[in-house]
Specification:
Elements (H helix, E strand, L loop, with lengths): L2 H6 L6 E5 L8 E8 L6 H11 L3 E8 L6 E8 L2 H13 L22 E7 L6 H11 L3 E8 L6 E7 L3 H13 L4 E6 L14 H12 L2 H12 L2 H14 L3 H15 L12 E2 L3 E4 L2 E7 L5 E7 L2 E5 L7 H10 L7 E5 L5 H4 L2 H8 L2 E4 L3 H7 L11 H14 L9 E2 L6 E3 L2 E9 L2 E7 L9 E5 L4 E5 L10 H4 L5 H4 L7 H23 L6 E4 L5 E2 L4
Parallel strand pairs: 13-14, 14-15, 15-16, 21-22
Antiparallel strand pairs: 1-2, 2-4, 3-4, 3-6, 5-7, 5-8, 6-7, 9-11, 10-11, 11-12, 12-13, 17-18, 18-19, 19-20, 20-21, 22-23
The protein binds fe (ii) ion (2 copies).
Length: 537
């Protein structure tokens, strides 16, 4: 067979990079990608096939985290016939050279204890990689990552594996020892390791593993059931992580808040713990209660003339527990007449729809919340590169925390009637003798965020613009430090947010200065953490 004929007839698009015999006797260099099944042993079968054709693998790259079926290889062959034979045998085994159907993303690795990452020394000769892959196949280990590049180091391969259980890891290491392999363990699953550092894991698997650090196994498997119950939810999670890959820095915050929010699912009923702030009597006949939910967000309840007015409403999933909490405190949930919602994030608006449905409570929000709610995207209308990340995040967090908006919302007026510290005053409402102004933010945190300010008494409901982390207990802050990410806020526009925070502090500071002459202080009511007297803070 002539060389050119042999290469012309290749049944697959093997790219031939070199076709001149060299000193090493490997005159032909071909490179190609194939699509395998994501199951133990498929890499072993594939590499054995290459070895049998006389080919020597010079590059082998498989990374299940980006594509669970694609392998890229570079193979050196001595003769043109070897290249041809390799192509024919691959064709005979029905290996796919292009993807058939959509990228499947089934998730199967759920425990970091089952994972092993090693660097193994290999003899630089044909068939050694295949022999190693067969050894791993014998232990039914699923290869998650494999990199061998002869140009970088002809005697080393990096491999990450998911085994059936932690005891299987010992079995694999014993077998490697028995066969005389030299290796170094880079990672073997343990609690202390950062799941982010595990190579070859899919993002969704990392999500479940992070949850395992916050929740017990049963809660995580409930969570998986919820995600698996709907293609839409699962799709949103996969798309969220694929967007996260494009926006690493911001995604980190979103991801952590999402993980934290998922914790709400394990804090219900018997496990629901709310922190009560000291009740206040800001005006005659008006009592103000503040409660912090187990995931740190606050709800505030004004009591006057037997009627209740709420500011913000907590994650939807807490609805039943909030009603029980109110009953214990002598607050009749059926008397919740109005809920003033600072913004359409699930932690502040989540139960509003339930109150409306059960008790006919009227809910008030900024009209810009309309687009956020209808599109299921907290960055609705803001454009920008984080819009898609925000979209999947919003949908997931709303689903996980069972957010429900009312069918009918009362929107604040938007025509400015004045201004305070650079913010437009757009509306007002009264609670007994308290007269609140509704200030419109410029959208740094989320479109349609408002602040409620009672100027004569210096009461400022600042929600996510003024978070009081110092008041959270050590347990609430969490040994894992997840709460600090809540305080980094997934902002729509962080630059505007920072300006707004500064402006808000100015307002509070000047209200405080006026009140101090009467021996009083401005009081800040944050979205998370206890209310506090400003007193120059
Ligand atoms: Fe928020
Ligand atoms: Fe919040």
């Amino acid at each position: 067979m002539k060389k050119t004929d042999a290469l012309k007839d290749l049944p697959f698009p093997l790219r031939v990079y070199r076709q001149v015999p060299d000193d090493s006797g490997h005159g032909f260099l071909v490179k190609f990608a194939v699509f395998l099944k994501d199951r133990p042993g498929s890499l072993a079968d594939f590499s054995s096939l290459i070895a049998r054709s006389g080919g020597n693998i010079s590059i082998f790259h498989y990374d299940r985290s980006t594509d669970s079926s694609r392998v890229v290889v570079e193979v050196e062959a001595a003769r043109v016939e070897d290249v041809h034979d390799l192509a024919v045998s691959l064709a005979g085994r029905k290996y796919a050279f292009e993807r058939k159907g959509p990228l499947s993303d089934e998730v199967s690795v759920t425990s970091p204890e089952n994972i092993l990452e090693i660097k193994v020394r290999l003899r630089n000769e044909p068939g050694t990689l295949a022999a190693l892959a067969r050894l791993l196949k014998g232990h039914k280990a699923n290869v998650m990552y494999m990199l061998y590049d002869g140009d970088i180091d002809p005697e080393v391969s990096d491999i990450a594996l998911a085994t059936k259980g932690p005891e299987e890891i010992d079995g694999i290491l014993d077998t490697l020892n028995g066969k005389g392999y030299h290796y170094r363990v880079v990672y073997r699953g343990s609690e202390g390791e950062k799941v982010e550092n595990i190579i070859g894991l899919k993002a969704v698997e990392k999500f479940y593993m992070r949850l395992l650090k916050l929740l017990d196994k049963k809660d995580v498997s409930e969570m998986r059931k919820l995600v698996d119950s709907s293609r839409e939810i699962y799709g949103n999670l996969v798309k969220f992580y694929s967007e996260a890959g494009n926006n690493l820095e911001s995604a980190d915050v979103f991801e952590k808040v999402l993980t934290l929010a998922s914790m709400s699912r394990s804090r219900l009923g018997q496990r629901f713990r709310a922190t009560e702030m000291s009740p206040l009597e800001p005006a005659p006949g008006v009592r103000l209660h503040g409660f912090r939910m187990p995931t740190s967000e606050n709800i505030y309840v004004f009591e006057n003339d037997g009627d209740l007015t709420m500011v913000d409403s907590g994650y939807g999933i807490y609805y039943r527990d909030i009603k029980r909490l109110m009953a214990r405190k002598g607050l009749d949930a059926s008397r919740v007449r109005r809920i003033f919602v600072t913004h359409a994030d699930a932690d502040h608006a989540g139960t509003s729809g339930y109150f409306t449905e059960e008790f006919g409570s009227e809910v008030f929000m900024h009209p810009d919340s309309r687009g956020v709610i209808s599109s299921g995207n907290r960055a609705h209308g803001t454009g920008g590169r984080l819009a898609r990340l925000n979209k999947y995040y919003t949908r997931l967090i709303n689903t996980f925390t069972e957010c429900r908006f009312p069918g009918k919302i009362n929107y604040f007026k938007t025509k400015p009637t004045g201004s305070l510290g650079g913010f437009d005053i757009i509306d007002s409402f009264a609670v007994g003798g308290l007269k609140f102004s509704v200030l419109s933010s410029r959208g740094g945190h989320i479109p349609g965020h408002v602040f409620f300010v009672e100027p004569s008494l210096g009461l400022v409901f600042a929600s996510d613009y003024m978070i009081n982390i110092a008041s959270l207990s050590e347990e609430e802050k969490g040994s894992l430090g997840v709460y600090k990410y809540l305080l980094t806020n997934p902002n729509s526009n962080h630059e505007i947010f920072k300006e707004e925070v500064a402006a808000l502090k100015e307002i509070i500071s000047s209200l405080d200065a006026g009140l101090r002459r009467q021996g009083l202080n401005a009081l800040v009511f944050p979205g998370h953490g206890d209310y506090y007297a400003f007193a120059g803070r």
